[in-house]
Amino acid sequence: MSEAGDRHSELGEDDRAILEFERENWGAQVNKESAVRERFSLSLARYYQRVYTICGSAEALAYDAVLVRNIREAARARETLTRPETESGH
Q1: Torsion-angle region of 24 (φ positive above 0: left; ψ -120 to 50: alpha; else: beta)
Q2: Distance CA 67, CA 20 (A)
């Protein structure tokens, strides 16, 4: 069990705080931007950049695998929606 504890300690305090905030506010959009600015002094765009970077780490996956997988899936879905369609060659 100490190995898992070591992995958690590799995830920085700020990174854990961001993951905890995202868990508490998963999917919430009302006033999320102001809450992010107040708590982390980040714009919403920069916050999500940090979230996605954090979720790319093995430490974050070890810390909360379900949350990290949900965030990764949501990011992939958003990317699919915003990616321009390729021409089909017609």
Answers
A1: alpha
A2: 9
